[in-house]
Every structure is written in C-alpha cells, then in structure tokens.
Write a structure and sequence with these properties.
There is one protein chain. Among the domains are: 40 residues, Single Sheet (N-terminal domain of TfIIb), CATH 2.20.25.10; 95 residues, Cyclin-like (Cyclin A, domain 1); 85 residues, Cyclin A, domain 1 (Orthogonal Bundle). It contains 13 helices and 3 strands; from the N terminus they run H-E-E-E-H-H-H-H-H-H-H-H-H-H-H-H. Strand 1 and strand 2 form a beta hairpin. Strands 1-2-3 form a 3-stranded antiparallel sheet. The longest helix has 20 residues. By secondary structure, it is mainly alpha-helical.
Length: 315
C-alpha cells in the first residue's frame, strides 16, 4: 500500500481528496483514480479473481475451490461433505492397507450420518427417484427442481407418509410437467419411475386435491401433434396441416371434454391422408397411447362437423 493510501484512509476509496468526486477503478492497470482531475488514489489494487486461466468449462470445474450450488433436488440441499472413494492422499499416492480401511469406515459412517432419520432417508430416496426418472426422460433441471419442491411440500404436510415412494415421485414429476407445459404422459413417467400407471394416477389426484388445490390443464392438442410427428418422424407437411386443422377447430364443441392425445392422433391421421402419406391408424394410436377406436371416433366427429376442401394444383 502506498503512503498516500495510508494517509487518505478508507475515504479515499469513495471520493477524490482534491475535487470530492467519485473514484473509478481501472481493472487492467490495477488503479483507483478520479475521472475528473486524474488523481490516482491507489496504483496497486489487489486482484480478487483467480490466479489461473480456464479455457473451457471442464478445466474451470477441475480448478474450482468450491462445490456445486445448492439444489432443492438434494435432500440436504447439497451442503453436506463427501468423502472420496479414490483411496488416495492429498499428493495423489495410494493409501496403505490400514489407512484405506479407515477411509472406507469414514465413508460408511458419512453415508449413515447423512440420512440418520427415517424422514431423511425417505426424502433422499424419493428425490433420487425423481432425478433418475428425469434423466431417463431427458427433462430439464427446472422440472426436477419443481418436482422436488412439490414432493417436499407433500412431505411437510405428511401427505406422502406411508405412501409408495416411486408412486409419489412419479406423481410429483407429472404434476411438475403439467405445471411447466412439458408434454410427458403419465404412462411414460410411471414407466421411468418403476411404478404402475394406476398407482401414479391415484397419487397425482391426491397431490391435486391436497397440495396444488387448483386445476392444472393438460398440454394443448398442438403440443401433442408435435410430439407425435417427432416420435414417428412424419413429414413436416403433415404436421403443418394437422396444426392448421387443430387451430381452426379449437373453439368448436369437438374439443370440449375430449382427450388431447386422441384429438391429436385424429388430426395427424386426417392430415396424412390429405398429404398422401397413408400412415396406418394402428401406428398413430400406438404412438399417441390411445386405442384405434378412439382415433376412428375422433376422425368421424371431425369430418361430421367440418367440411375440408382440398385444393389440387394442376401442373
């Protein structure tokens, strides 16, 4: 520190002693100076940044001295201490037999201490189920956080007590998808969570009545159409025509009280016939997870209420 800095004290960092104007910092030169009169208050500031450079995220993560940010998807919010299982010391050398046994014993007791209570073990198992199912379905991290928040609320209200952990995890994840507008069916989530669809549906209704207490609408027909086209890899012309048909029929009576998946399958089938793609109803019904009877009934209702005029271009 320079003598001028010792004489100026802490006030020199806020105002210039000559003109009483605000001081600015020059990070490249390491100076604190006045932008009006040019007085240099400090010419050797301390760089609070890291003393190393990183070229990519992997190199930055290896040199970080702090852990991951806190997450509600972890039962202890990620604030616990983990003991590595590499069996190496701070210099990278392998431990001998006695120290290796001590390290393994510490790891075992660390795992036991993290989930010592019954409630903590149940919470940790449920959040692990939610994370694994989300990874299998390739859901984004905000959905995982939302599902973890829903399950924590149900556990705090003692709703999830004496319930199936896999069923409650699937119901929480499905409710989070419904809240965020992510198109994932209950059958897909139940399969990824390792539980039955009927059990997940029962717990989902329980969460709606006790935790959410407001109606959460299912995804729109347009999102179901895009999902069907992407899964079957259908021509984009069929998707555009199916979306156009769905937009024109949204305000009509045909969409009230009907399952969006069945309507989407019907729109895709009609659009495929008009575009000469000829996709069987059985394939569309299997992808939409509905029956062929549902697809035929929705197609009949659409054709009875609407008249579709197709323009033929003559070359």
């Amino acid at each position: 520190m320079l003598p001028v800095e010792r004489d100026l004290g802490i006030a020199a960092l806020n105002a210039c002693p000559n003109c009483r104007k605000a001081l600015i910092r020059d990070q490249e030169k390491g100076e604190v100076l006045c932008q009006y009169c040019g007085f240099v208050a400090i010419d050797q500031t301390i760089d609070s940044g890291s003393e190393w450079k990183q070229l990519d995220f992997e190199e930055r993560s290896k040199r970080m001295r702090v852990g991951l940010p806190t997450s509600i998807a972890l039962h202890d919010y990620g604030l616990s201490t983990d003991i590595s299982g590499d069996s190496r010391d701070s210099h990278g050398r392998f431990l001998d037999q006695r120290n290796r046994q001590d390290a393994m014993r510490l790891q075992k007791w660390q795992r036991r201490i993290r989930t010592s209570a019954q409630g903590e073990r149940s919470l940790a198992n449920a959040l692990t189920k939610i994370t694994e199912a989300s990874a299998q379905l390739r859901l984004p991290s905000p959905i995982v956080e939302e599902a973890s928040h829903i399950f924590r609320k149900s556990a705090k209200q003692s709703i999830s007590k004496s319930k199936s952990i896999a069923g409650m995890a699937a119901a929480s994840l499905y409710l989070a998808c419904r809240r965020s507008g992510v198109n994932r069916s209950l059958k897909e989530i139940a399969k990824a969570s390792g539980t039955q669809e009927r059990s997940a549906a029962r717990y989902f209704r329980l969460l709606l009545n006790e935790v959410e207490k407001t109606y959460v609408p299912p995804p729109s027909v347009q999102k179901y159409i895009s999902k069907l086209v992407n899964k079957e890899k259908i021509n984009t012309r069929v998707e555009r025509l199916a979306l156009d048909l769905a937009d024109r029929a949204t305000e009509s009576e045909i969409s009230s009280g009907k399952t969006p998946a069945g309507l989407a399958a019907a729109y895709v089938y009609i659009a495929s016939v008009l575009c000469s793609e000829h996709i069987p109803q059985r394939e569309i019904a299997e992808i939409a997870e509905v029956t062929e009877v549902t697809v035929r009934n929705r197609c009949r209702e659409i054709l009875e209420k609407f008249t579709i005029n197709q323009k033929v271009k003559v070359l």
